[in-house]
Amino acid sequence: MTTLVTGGAGYIGAQTVRALRNASRDVVVLDTLERGNKQAVIDAKLIVGDIADQRLVAKICRKYKVTSVVHFAAYKAVGESMTHPMKYWQNNVSSTLKLLETLQAHNVSQFVFSSSAAVYGTPKSSPVTEKEPTFPENVYAETKLAVENILRSLAIDGLNSISLRYFNAAGASSDNKIGEDWATSQNLVPRVMRALLDDKFKFEVFGDDYATPDGTCIRDYIHVEDLAVAHVKALDYLESSGTTTVCNVGTGKGTSVTQLLEVAAKIAKREVPHTIGARRKGDPVSVFADATLANKVLDWHATHDLQSIIQSAFTWHSTHPNGYR
Ligand SMILES: NC(=O)c1ccc[n+]([C@@H]2O[C@H](COP(=O)([O-])OP(=O)(O)OC[C@H]3O[C@@H](n4cnc5c(N)ncnc54)[C@H](O)[C@@H]3O)[C@@H](O)[C@H]2O)c1
After folding, report:
1. Domains and CATH numbers, the chain
2. N-to-C CA span, the chain
3. Nearest CA to 71 among 302, 238, 183, 281?
């Protein structure tokens, strides 16, 4: 029984590969390395290739007796998805369809999918449950929802899947071996770390006049190690006859940008240099998860708090200012 991890050399994939191996699961990673790093896989089996390469995926399924897949491989930059939509539809949806076709031909019936809270768009209120209507507001989110819909319909064909709707993944591994590269991430935590550690970097907070207690946007930051464990639990769920579903993976706690900057300043022992800019188009005011379903169905609970997320990120970026380069 081997789990194929697509995109396992990426930020969340690499953490999940470790979590799966810690849970004594056999793993094989498939990644183009276009946006991932060989070093992040550490000593797990890595095959460099594309999920759309049906001959290669077929060979992997046969050789490693693949019974389940955790599917991270995708592009994730919202801005790029709006300027290069075809690239996103092709890699995130069309290539995923090719992958699914190959998996079906090899009777792989358990599939964990990296979806995103972005499918909710601007929710009416938070915490957001899985019953909230989906309303993707960019091409990236559209592609995530499209795959969720494909998976829902493939349940009829016997494919059991769980689409994990991640909230804001952040932080680095506790042993400082795997983390993010601030040069390629648009996310808040790596930008805050860069503002603290790279004097040339200009960091702008997008708006402080929102209808929140301190005027800045509220998000749900989840430690990447907690997120990784959710995938192990998701495979357990599918293996104990769990049927196709979607599930939020967040802490259930909302944190404003200002609150995050305060925690970062305490850890770094200096203020985070920043300016206040205009609101960014399409940024929802407040989004955090209702994690009841993950707690109940996956028996999953976040174990790290914001302090732990920021501390791990600060340690990582202080020691890896160029990522893995
Ligand atoms: N980072 C977040 O906060 C976040 C939030 C919600 C959802 N997600 C989703 O989680 C998944 C992983 O995110 P991440 O932050 O680790 O991204 P990442 O870019 O670090 O990792 C993606 C990996 O997939 C690989 N890849 C891309 N296309 C491929 C293909 N066709 N074949 C093989 N490999 C391919 C890349 O080389 C990279 O290593 C993505 O699907 C992303 O959309 C991420």
Report:
1. 2-170+221-249 (3.40.50.720)
2. 34
3. 238
Distance 73 CA to ligand 1 centre (A): 5
Residue 82 tokens read as: 């709006």
Q: DSSP labels for 227-247? A: HHHHHHHHHHHHHTTPPSEEE
By the 8 A CB rule, do 97 and 150 touch?
yes
The segments of the chain whose pLDDT lies below 70 read: none
> Within 10 Å of residue 106's Cβ, how many Cβ atoms?
15
Distance CA 277, CA 256 (A): 16
**Threshold 0.70, pTM exceeds:** yes
Q: Report helix, strand or coil for 163.
A: strand
Q: Reply yes or no on whether 11 is catalytic.
A: no
Which one of 140, 166, 210, 237 is the catalytic residue?
140
CA of 227 to the centre of ligand 1 (A): 14
Other C-beta atoms closer than 10 Å to the C-beta of 213 total: 10
Q: Are 285 and 213 in contact (CB under 8 A)?
A: no
- In the chain, DSSP assigns E strands to 2-6, 26-31, 45-48, 66-71, 110-116, 160-166, 168-170, 204-206, 218-219, 221-223, 245-249, 255-256, 275-277
Whole-number pLDDT of residue 8: 98
